[in-house]
Amino acid sequence: MRARDLAVGYETVSVDSDALDAARLMAEHRSPGWLVPDETG
């Protein structure tokens, strides 16, 4: 077994995303957090 077999993908939102919308999406998906990459990734 490898770490990639256990890894879970995380959703992303952009730095321009509305914070309340992001919080709602996190709640709907029961996600502990989302990645917020900048324009360079």
Describe it.
The chain is mostly helical. It has one domain. The protein is built from two helices and no strands. It has helices at about 5, 20-30. The N and C termini lie far apart (about 30 Å).
Q: Give the domain tally.
A: 1
**What is the H/E order?**
HH
Overall outline: flat
The average pLDDT value, as a whole number, equals: 86
Structural Rg: 12 Å
Let me know the largest β-sheet: none
Q: What share of the residues lie within helices? A: 25-40%
Distance between the termini: 29 Å
β-sheet strand percentage: under 5%
Structural class of the secondary structure composition? mainly alpha
Low-pLDDT ranges: none
Query: Number of DSSP strands?
Result: 0
**How many helical stretches?**
2
- Seen as an oligomer or otherwise, the chain set is single chain
